[in-house]
Protein 1
Amino acid sequence: MPDFQTEKLLVLKFLNAIDNADENNLVEIISKYTSENFNMKCTHPFNELEGADKIAKYLWSPIKKSFKPIQRRMDIFYAGTNLVDNHSSKWVVNMGHLLGSFNNPFFGIEPTKKTVMLWYCEFYKVENNKITEGAFFLDILKFMQHLKLSVVPDSTGMIGFNPGPKTHDGLYFEKQSDEEGNKTLDLMMRMANRLIGEGMRTTVSDLEKDWHDDMIWWGPGGIGASYTYDGYLKGHTGPFEENLEFIEFSGHVLENSEGNFGGWFGWPNLKMRPKGNYMGLTQNTDLIGEMRVVDLYRRDKDKIAENWILIDHLHFLKCVGIDLLERNKKLNN
């Protein structure tokens, strides 16, 4: 079995170089660690980018201009082969916050001149000692909630900063047990297949099969975090199921695990149609929105203890006719 140490070291060097780069040498640094056709799938408004020039210009440069200096506060780091392609590719995953000083506008959001935290999750595919593909999820809606912008309503779950694992052991810089990683992947997929098979509907009896009763669901901007079965059903699945019609599961780009941690992302994972007041923003519509979703999990023995979820809500809402970034710009003009 692969030990992923070469891939992990490459990604760690890449991230460190990006964090310490200035806007003038971003292209050079990205090119050093990535393949010629390196491409990234990013949350709105970055979206799909290909090549070092565009990734530097449209992803990292705006972040660095608005929030420099950036400090990466990593909470989860692991690597694994991809179940989606029958374990033929290796991916390195990391999640945490980017800490920065919000001194310049960010996509029309006015700077506060204060320290801010941006919740992120990244995925990098490594082949022949080069990063060939990536995904970058930045929870801009959660950031907007932290700033208490008027275009964002209250959430049904807890609004705050989503911390790393309760066990404080999510940084797998060293090789982990293959057996434990397989247990995590099997549990994740068992839970997911049940949920998809039931049309994205959840009951307490479903949760009891796969989740600890003191589970914590670290939800995305627009929804918030929920604790225990009761909190999860009230804070997330109830409003989600009541106000969205499940149209299609579109599959995942990546499904992998290592040790007690694992996860996936899709592009998109789901197609949903608003049929009610989802997040206090939508109403009945014929428009169908794409949900690009990240799920990371921590397994504790034979059940899931924690789940971190990022949803590209800005993209989903734009699909159904609601552009929160544009609404916010208009309020400031």
Protein 2
Amino acid sequence: MTDTRWDDLQRGDSAVIWHPYAPAVNGPEIFPIVSASGVRLDLADGRQLIDGMASWWCAIHGYNHPTLNRAVETQLDAVSHLMFGGLTHPPAVALAQMLVELTPPGLDRVFFSDSGSVAVEVAMKMAIQYWYGMSQPRKHKLVALRNGYHGDTFGAMSLCDPVTGMHHLFGDALSKQLFAPAPECPFDDLCTDNEMVEITALLSQQHQDIAAVIVEPVVQGAGGMRFYSPEYLVKLRALCDHYEVLLIFDEIATGFGRTGKLFALEHADVVPDILCLGKALTGGYMTLAATLCSERMCSGITNSEAGAFMHGPTFMANPLACATAIASIQLLLSQPWQRTVQRLQVELAHGLAPARTLDNVAEVRTLGAIGVIELKEAVDMRTVQPMFVDRGVWVRPFGKLIYAMPPYIMASADVATLTAAMVDVAAHL
């Protein structure tokens, strides 16, 4: 590829495209990609980058995987899209059956949507409509955790931390939800009763108004890459049961092996009333999400005034996406993925350990295929992104965090290159 193509793509991009979390004009440099394979992204100027982000955590099998390619091609010859109102198709049925089988007993119904944010919106509407069906319409508030992140659509934004989150600008326009402190108990530690004091008081005083509590189990993702004790989820489940409040787990970031368990809820052996899945569901090939719930939830919603769940995305259960999800899940389960993720955790921990000696580093932490360097000050994206590209890796920091969530297929040598670049960039900030 030539520098001319690089320049043409950058000029064309800057003239008409608006990128996420960036100004439309005079934003940070954009890097043109023309192809990708395995864990490598091919830049238009001929350079290659090792992808440490798995395309925002979803491309767990890397890029251009022959198994997933075949799944798309095969389904394309059958049917690429169908409306899901009144119709069904084999990939949707097979995928729903697979998800029910893989998740804990009690999550018996699958509602498909087209993104993680919408999966959360669906969960919120399920919880609220359930209580309407149970003749308790007063229960329409949700409780979320500080430092949490649940998506960019309006309902999902209302559940993100209103102070430290990235959506505070919309605060006056959003539904007012309730917030409890984020757990401070480390992942490998116990969760004391002191951790539960404030959320217990909140549920005790306002449970008549609360439909559900929503949390990201074990790992708070885009709100800070924080890891906390699974025991917190055990205590939270008991609280929700006691005060007759539903429990929603947002596993959009953690599902399908990222924390070392197939689903993060397995660390605590806790079953929510509603479970949100997305991101890695299709291995990063297609946009697809799923919200699972119990038969009890279905009955309550059916008994509501509408007699049906009032939601219906145009592209829900897209056949191409469902077929790809089936192939991705089968591919994951056909391999010793637990050993692979454990290897990645060990290598990430080893490679990032030198960052602990840096004066500008607050903490280094790893869990499963997640590695985090938390700095004491926020990074400048205009400066830090080119530094990673110059070192041959793609890492997308935010706030005070330099982190990696690599594809599971990443080889040990590439992990070493990735972590060395992260430590080196941190050292030069």
Protein 3
Amino acid sequence: MGGIASGLYGGLAYFVFLATFLYAVAFVGNLPVPKTIDSGQAGPLVHALLIDALLLGLFAVQHSVMARPLFKRWWTRLVPPPVERSTYVLLASLVLLLLFWQWRPIPQPVWSVTNPAGSLVLHAVFWTGWGVVLFSTFLINHLELFGLRQVYARLRNETLPPPVFKAPLFYRNVRHPIYFGFLLAFWAAPTMTAGHLLFAVATTGYILLGIYLEERDLIALFGDRYRRYREQVSMLIPLPARKTQGSTSIAGDELER
């Protein structure tokens, strides 16, 4: 019964994540959904800035703190380990849904690309970014990243193997292709409003902080192997892997988060 309950919970958390991810695409891209980054009645500027900053800060704190090993060791005293990742995914999704719901638009234009070719290029970059995000999750382990593999193992009374170092495809040229995809999606806007710019700047800052924290954890987990990988592969801009003196190629290795 515990395995069945864990499986149902993990499935629910994944469904909420998937709905949130799809809504995020529409929210950032101002697609036809009830609330987007630029839709709604604009209010006082200071009020909008304060609310939006608090929403972005709430997501950053939740997303970063709950991902740290120290928090996980404490958290799994309260939450069964097989559903720890699903709980993280569920809470992150709910915080994002709150952000979408309560976001205050700041419609003042920062730039506007009216040239049809330029607008088409930016739209293409926007969709490419989201495609890179989604595809990159499957390059590592989509099911484990969002908690499904853990609850399935619990259902079958299996023990998951320890994480192994891998660098498949995109990861051979950029250490964080998921973050790279997000940056493309957040910044590729034919019409950039002040509210969208606030969102893009804040999330870019969070991504840089998240990389610092994540790589610190990865070095603690994989040691010199990750240090060598970091020396060879660009952080956010896809580039050919560098060969450093005395190092071996990362080709054939992979990174599992």
Protein 4
Amino acid sequence: MKLTCNRQELSSAVTNVQRAVSTKASMPVLEGVLIAAENNSITFTGYNLEIAMMTTVEANVIEDGSIVLPARLFGDIVRRLPEDTVIIETDEKLVTYIHSGLADYQIMGIDSKEFPELPQIDESEKIVFNSGLLKDMIRQTIYAVSVDDSKPVHKGTMFDIEDNTLKLISVDGFRLAMRIEPIEDARDTKFIVPAKALSEVLKIITDEEKTIDILVGRRHTVFKVENYSIVSRLLEGTFLDYKNTIPKTVGTEVTLNTRLITDSVERMSLLNTEKIMSPVNCYVADGQVKLTCSTSVGKANDVLNANVTGNIPLRIGFNNRYLLDALKNTNTDEIKMQFNGPLTPMKIVPTEGNSFIFLVVPMRLRDDN
């Protein structure tokens, strides 16, 4: 293999692909990036057996070939090369020579035949969606993904396509986040994508006006955005029956300015630390929501004017971080907070439409029966 390419394009590709490479693996080849050169382009692939990332950059390929190079070392070298033009060539002994200006490196590679084969998915199973909209949907739901290993299926986000509607649902036992958007796809399917893979999709999407192709197989999915492909295994297991989890009735409804309630909860949160955690108390009365927080550090109080309907008064408490995560991901000027008592999950929805539903499970307050 012998080629010349632009250092900046090379560095960007290797930096991104490197995130899908294992740092400590039983197979040395999994700690490397696969470089394949042909037809005046180079394809870079990183794969840790759970997530793979591939991208292609233009190059002047003098001799076709492929090699696996240590990802971290290769990335560090490329980022520090002195000139814009990089020459890469390998010999029959798997030694790779890297030249740029007066700088030269020789590093040992691994035969590309040892690199594991990536899953193949039929292009006919493709879902086409606006990349910017999908980015927003992932960002607004990924915060509620579980980090608990006892329920691995909840360490991902469910994609539920039904009746020309795409729903993304994340749960962790304390909260639920769901985003809903119409989609021109008549299929009826569900699949669960690990949060790690979705985090990489978020990082790759740059142009919000483009489309993203989602290929869905039995055990894997591929996200194709711009010149990148992210391959991920799908999570298997019984996901929460979210339709029966979301409260269908409303006992008390409060309409609030999103920024004002978010700022107020943040003020209450100043008294909480990792070691000192106390709920933010919400007291809903006629035309007002009173927030209080009391810890060994001190006490805080705040009052917000609100449009309140239904059963009052109501006193309910929340973990400040869980409540803030939901509020900060609403992306609307006003929200509705819907309650069915002090021990039932609170539902946050937009004042118009149904683009999201966020649930937050309350904390039991000391004087609750």
